[in-house]
Specification:
Shape: globular
Number of strands: 0
Helix content: over 70%
Oligomer: single chain
Length: 157
Amino acid sequence: MFVTRELAGRLAFPVLAVVVAGTLLFEQMNGGYRSDTSAYTYGLAVPVILFGCIQILIDVIGYYREAGTREDSDVPPLQWRRPLALLASVIVFIAVLEPLGYILSLAAFLVFAFWLLDIRRVIPVLTITTGTIAFIHIVFVLWLETPLPKGLLEGVF
């Protein structure tokens, strides 16, 4: 599938929303949060996952329909392999979050997502991945004091 920066930009926020909501839902299902806040978690995470996946499909289909209507378009017809691989990688990310920890899981997920989106220059991928992990660590662990899964890095952080 030919992925342009425009399509990657369209997909960035819905994919991130699905990842975050899926992580919250996974943590709630494993008893990670207090029981008195479980309704909030389910009430927020399930619609975000649902509408995020719908938005991803709308963006991908709409992008290819728009490209197909232009005569000068060099975008090939839609192939489902990469969008499905991206959604599958979200599921794998959520599944390995607890055993590997959020740092290793998120790093692997982001590198794989960039690779799927044909963003393969090493410096930008590593910079964005490191910055995202640092931002999440600063905001959630240091500022909000929210415990995130440490996994294999249990003694390091």
